[in-house]
Design goal:
single chain; about 325 residues; alpha+beta; Jelly Rolls; Phage tail protein beta-alpha-beta fold; seven-stranded mixed sheet; seven-stranded antiparallel sheet; 10 helices; 19 strands; about 35% helix; Ferrdict_sens_TM; FecR; FecR_N
Length: about 325
């Protein structure tokens, strides 16, 4: 899960501390009064508390909320809900922990498409599929993809996460990948596409890919070794393709002089709960190859390589801090 929910490290850690103290002494009236005074300090404190509550609920099970969750999923399948009603019921699912990744999507309609997608992965899961035309597809953690092949076209729809694609040969039907930001048309190639909210990131490793922006229709062609981030209206500067956007398919997180805060954000996408970093060490540079199948091992490698230590407040709340 992302290590950056949008508020400062100190407030998040204070919220985690209050949560731990209240769990240890649930009937302490004075402690509850102190916590309330902390909450009343401002909106930042309330947002941080809401964040930690949502994460803790994912690990608490769904026994009491199970019936409501199942009713919501049933109505989603029939499509008989309004957008407003969907929003409120998605929060039930997210709080219950069932399909937790679903509840974090900003757009409930996108969440619905992702939940119903033909190919999906959970947080920390990676998946490989060979399609009927011979195309090889790898899905990264927390991803959702639909495949629509007919007599005239081959189309993939990426709703969430990231996919690495190696197109099949000998099929004359046009092949394309659709994202919210635009349309990608590979020209016999190997490439990755990553959803970044309203933007998408393309990395080309073999061949070439034509990118057409959703709103303007403008297009550009990227060759092997190139990358670009784009949204529906404009594309950024063309840069060098990132090897790590391909290495995850082999179960590796490659860090090539990567800032520690960026590394933690990347690694956080492969484990449930909160993974944060103290700003005092966020600038440190990370080099090496780290296992995605065992993120605790990756954190242990960090402790060996850098002057940091891993602080575990709960199973689901982990912070990398300066070594003491």
């Amino acid at each position: 899960m992302s290590a950056r929910p949008g508020f400062d490290h100190a407030t998040l850690e204070s919220a985690a501390d209050w949560f731990a103290r209240l769990q240890e002494s649930p009937n302490d009236a004075e402690l509850h009064a102190q916590w309330r005074r902390w909450m009343d300090q401002g909106e930042t404190q309330r947002l941080a508390w809401s964040y930690i509550e949502r994460i803790s609920q994912r690990f608490a099970g769904i026994q009491q909320q199970g019936p409501a969750a199942h009713r919501t999923l049933a109505t989603l399948r029939t499509g008989k809900q309004t957008r407003r009603r969907l929003l409120s019921q998605f929060s039930v699912l997210a709080g219950a922990g069932l399909f937790g990744w679903l509840g974090w999507r900003a757009n409930p309609i996108d969440s619905l498409h992702a939940w119903r997608a033909q190919y999906r992965t959970a947080v920390g899961e990676r998946r490989s599929e060979r399609l009927s035309d011979g195309t090889q597809v790898w899905l990264n953690s927390d991803s959702a993809l639909d495949v629509r092949f007919d007599d005239a076209h081959r189309e993939l729809l990426l709703y969430a996460g990231e996919v690495l694609i190696e197109t099949g040969h000998g099929d004359s039907r046009p092949f394309q990948v659709r994202t919210r930001a635009g349309l990608l048309q590979p020209l016999g190639t190997r490439f990755s596409v990553r959803e970044l909210g309203p933007r998408a990131q393309l990395n080309v490793y073999q061949g070439a890919v034509r990118t057409t922006l959703q709103d303007t229709g403008a297009s550009l062609i990227l060759q092997a070794g190139q990358a670009v981030v784009f949204d529906a209206r404009e594309a950024g500067a063309i840069t060098r393709a990132e090897s790590r956007r391909e290495a995850w398919s082999r179960g590796l997180l490659l860090a090539e002089d990567m800032p520690l805060d960026e590394f933690i954000t990347e690694l956080g996408g492969y484990r449930r709960g909160h993974l944060g970093v103290d700003p005092a060490v966020a600038h440190l540079r990370v080099m090496g190859s780290f296992p995605l199948a065992d993120t605790d091992q990756a954190l242990a490698q960090l402790e060996e390589a850098l002057p940091v230590q891993v602080q575990r407040r709960f199973d689901w709340w982990v912070t990398v801090v300066p070594r003491r």
